[in-house]
Amino acid sequence: MAPSRKSKSVNKKFSYVNEVASSKDGDSSAKRSGKRKRKLSDMLGPQWTKEELERFYEAYRKYGKDWKKVSCD
Description:
The protein is mainly α. It has a domain at 48-73. It has helices at 15-26, 28-32, 40-44, 50-63, 67-72. It is elongated. 0% of the residues are buried. Residues 43-73 form the SANT domain. Residues 48-73 form the HTH myb-type domain.
């Protein structure tokens, strides 16, 4: 005797994915109301100044990846 066929309910386990995707679209209204998700760059603080970057790259060229020497330069 042949094995019985599986019911079409197998795809039900993926219906949650569609629900989550559609709920993410609703989150865009939070962006319009002034709230936005904080980015990692926002939490790190201000960017380096041009002088700081020049000093870093100069020390990096001089010492390579010896970070202790780069940080003391």
